[in-house]
Design goal:
Strand content: 5-15%
Shape: elongated
Number of strands: 20
Helix content: 40-55%
Distance between the termini: 54 Å
Number of helices: 24
Oligomer: single chain
Largest sheet: 4 strands, mixed
Amino acid sequence: MNFDFSDEQHMLRDEVRKFLVKESPLKVARDVLEQGLTHSGPVWRGLAGLGATALMLPDDCGGAGLGAMELCVVAEELGRQLSPVPLASTLYLAAQAVLLGGTAAQQQRWLSPVAEGAIGAFAAPLDGGVDAAALPRFDGECLTGIVPLVADGGCATWAVVLAADGQERPVWVVSGLERGLVRRALATLDPVKPFAHWRFEATPAEALAAAPDATALLERVRNRAAVFLAFEQLGAADAALEMAAACARERRAFGRTIGSYQGIKHKLADLYNANQLARVHCYYGAWAITADAAAPAGAPELAAAAASARVSATLAATQAAHEGLHVHGGMGYTWEVDCHLFMRRARQQAVLLGHEHAWREQLAAALEARLAEPAAAAPAASRPAAETGSMDFDDSPAEATFRAECRAWLSANARPKPRADALFGPDLTPAQRMQAARDWQARKARAGFGAITWPRAVGGRGGTPIQELIWRQEEGRFDVPTGVFNVSLGMVMPAVLAHACDEVRAAHIAPALSGEHLWCQLLSEPGAGSDLGMVRTRAERCTDGREGWLLNGQKLWTSLAQFAQYGLVLARTDPGRPKFEGLTSFFIDMASPGVSVRPIRQPGGEADFNEVFLEEVFVPDRQRVGAEGAGWKVTLTGLMSERLAIGGVMPPDLWRTFAIELQRTAFGGGSAIADGRFRERLADLYLAEHGLWLLQCRALTALGKGREPGPEMSGAKILVAQAIQAYTRLAIDLRGPRGVLAAAELGEGAALVERLWFGAAGMRIAGGTDEIVRNSIGERVLGLDPEPRTDKGVPFNQLLR
C-alpha cells in the first residue's frame, strides 16, 4: 500500500511552490483584481517555462511524460497562492476534452500550443446539464449562437465548445477563435478568475472526431476537472488556515494571544480536521483520475471519488475562508487584508462546476449503484500501480500471501458472519462472552495470530502494522469475539515489555498472549480524567520491613476490570514534585487483598467499565514497572502503542447498511432513498467512513516507509463519533413511532444501531474529550499558545490546597 505522492512528485511540489511564492504572492492576485486584468501574464509564462502547462499532454504534443498526479500537485500549489492564471479552463477542462474526444492529429494540432502557454476555454454547461436548444449551432464548419458563461473567456485563444448539430444533437467542436466571436466581460464574485459572455457569429470550428457520446464526455471531463479543482480548493484552505493561525499566534487581547483562548483554538482545530478530510479525499481522487486516464472506457471509481473530493474540499475552503476572516476580527473585514481574497475564491470555486448539493447527489447515486454489487474487501478497487501513479491500494505480494494465510486459517476455524453488522454472541452473558474471547485468543496465539506486531522473541509474529490491519479486516468478517484484548495486548503489555524487568516479562507475557490472563489499565480517577497528571492514588513505601509499597486510592472507567487478572496502576510516589514527575507505575494482582471492583452500568445497560478501589494494597517492589518517578513515561508508551485502534471503531460498510435501510423504508410515497435529504445524509456518512479509511491509509503508508504517522489522525476520533451519532439518530428516525422500541423488541438487526447510538456518546469522552483533542491539535499542530496554567512546575501537594 502507498497512499502518498512519490518522492519525485514531492520534489515537483517544492519547485512549483518556490516559484509561486516568489513570482505569485497574494499581491499578484490583488493586482489583477484592482487593475481589471484577465490574468497574470508573467506568472502564466513562468508556469509554461516550468512545464506545468504540458502536464498530461502526450509526448508528441510537447508533454513531459508527466500525468494527472503531477497536475494535482501543481493545482494545490496554485490554490495556496490564489494564482491568477487560466490553468483550470485550459488544462482541467479544454485539454481534457481534446484528450478524450480528439483524434491523434487533433490532439497534436490543438494541444501542442498549450504546452507553450496557449490559453484555452471550455464553452459548455459547467453544471453538466445539457439542453440542446440552448446550445450554439454547428453547421459542420462554423458556430453560431451564445454561450452565456465562459471561464477565462476574455483571454482564451482557442476553445472546446459543446454545440448542437442540425438535428439538435449535442456535438463537441474545437475552434481557434480566429474570427466571428464577440466577447463581453462579466462581473464576478472573484474578479481574479474572470468570466465572459460569448456570441459566435459564423466562427470557424471543427468537430472532435473521436467523441461519439457528447454527454458521456462532458461527465468524464467534469469529473476530472472536479478533482483538479478540489486540489486548488485544498491549497486555498490550507493557506487560509495558516494565515488565521499566524494571526492567532500574534494578535493579543486581554493580556494574551487570542490563540490561547479555547474558542479560537477549537475553531482552528475544526478547520484543520476539515482540511485533513478534504486532503485524503483529494488524494483518492488523484488515484481515481490516474486510473481513468489509463482506461479507455474510464474508471468506475471516478464518479464517487470526484464527488467526494469536490464536496469535502468545497466545505474545507469555504469554512477556512470565512472562519479565517473571523479570527482576524475587524481588520479581516477590510480591503487591505487578504481575507476577502480567500472568501471570494472559495465561493466562486464552490459553484464553478455545480454546487456541493449536486455533487452530493452524484455521490449518492454512485453509492446506490454499488448496492447491487457485493461488498468489497477494501474501499479502493484493485489496479496495477503502473496505472495509478505512485499510489497503490493493493497488497504487495508478501501482504497478499499473508492475507490468504489469514483467510484460510479463519475459514478453517470460524464461521463467517451472517450479516456485516452481526454482533457476536448476542444471547451470551458477559462472562460467557469473555470466556469465548479467551478461547479465541488462545487459538489465535497458537496459530501465530495473537499479537502480530510483537517481536518473535516474546511470542509475536514480528509482523508489520499493515499485516495487523489485514488481520483485522479478515477477522472482522467472521463471527468471533474481537476487541476484548485491545487494551491488554495493545496498550498494557507493550508498556510492560518496554519497562518491566526480565523476570516480570518471563512470567507474564505468555499468559497474557494466550488470553489466560487479561490485563486492565488503572489510570483515570474521579479527579484525573483528561488531566491524568492529577492522579491522587498514593503509593507509599512500607515501613514495617517489607520490600514494597502500599497503594490507596480509587480508579475509574477501567475497562473489563471485573474480568482482569492483573492491572497496571499509575500511582503518585512523590507528591512534592510537579504532577507528571512524581508518578510511578506498578502492576497488581486484581485478586490482592484490598482490591475492590465495582462495575459501572452504562446508558445501554452493559457494564464494560468499572471503578476500582485500592485500600492498603501491598505491592512488592519487584512489581514496579520502570524506574521510580518514571510512571508518566511508562503510561505514554502504552498510550502510543495502539496506533490502529481507531480502525475498529466504525463498523465496515456502515454506509451500505444505511443505504439498504433507506431502500426498505417508505417515505413520501416512495422509498426513503429517493428523497434528496436522506441522500445527502448518505453521502455525508460515506465521506466520513471512507475518509477515516483513507486517513488510516496515510498513517500506514508512513509506518511502511519507516516514518512516524503525521498529525492528520489527531481528529479522527471526533470525525468518527460525530458521524456515528448522526447515523444512529437518523436510523432511529427511520423507524417512525417504532423508534421508541429497544433492540430487544425489534430484532437482531437493530442491535448494532442501539449499541452505536449509546457508544458514540462515550466515544466523545474516552481517550480525551472532543475539547481536549481540539486543544491538542491547536497547540501541538498549529502552534497556538496553551491556556495559562497555574500548575506548571508546581509541586503536586501544593495544587491540592
